[in-house]
């Protein structure tokens, strides 16, 4: 039974990776251009993976309200713009989202926002991901 449950939890993120709605969670403020500029620390017009994960790390620790180094479901909600299914991020199913698990979730988002697949995010890619979210409202 436990083995089945664990297998199921591992399968969920893979399925959800195809849900385009999840691509829009990159934007942490309501102004995508401002969010982009904050993330683009060397101001070269692109957010590369190092800048992206630095930003993701900041968001993780800002959301960790009780400072225990992991996110519970309420804290995870504070970390993402769109409601995210907790079990899809908590891949080992222990009820807590670690930074590594959060990175896994954000890695899928990065790939979805990076439309042209050049491994960096342009402002256009971030803004268009944000616009799609607005249209869905
Ligand atoms: Ca940059
Ligand atoms: Ca976990
Ligand atoms: Ca790109």
Please, could you describe this protein's structure?
- The chain has 137 residues and is mostly helical.
- The protein has a single domain (2-124), classed as Recoverin, domain 1, CATH 1.10.238.
- Helices cover 57% and strands 3% of the residues.
- The chain has helices spanning 2-16, 32-39, 49-63, 73-79, 86-89, 99-113, 123-136, and strands at residues 46-47, 121-122.
- Strands 1-2 form a two-stranded antiparallel sheet.
- The radius of gyration is 15 Å and the shape is globular.
- The relative contact order is 0.20.
- Residues 8-28 have low confidence and may be disordered.
- The chain binds calcium ion (3 copies).
- One calcium ion binds at residues 40, 42, 44, 46-48, 51.
- The site of one calcium ion (CA) has 7 residues, from loops.
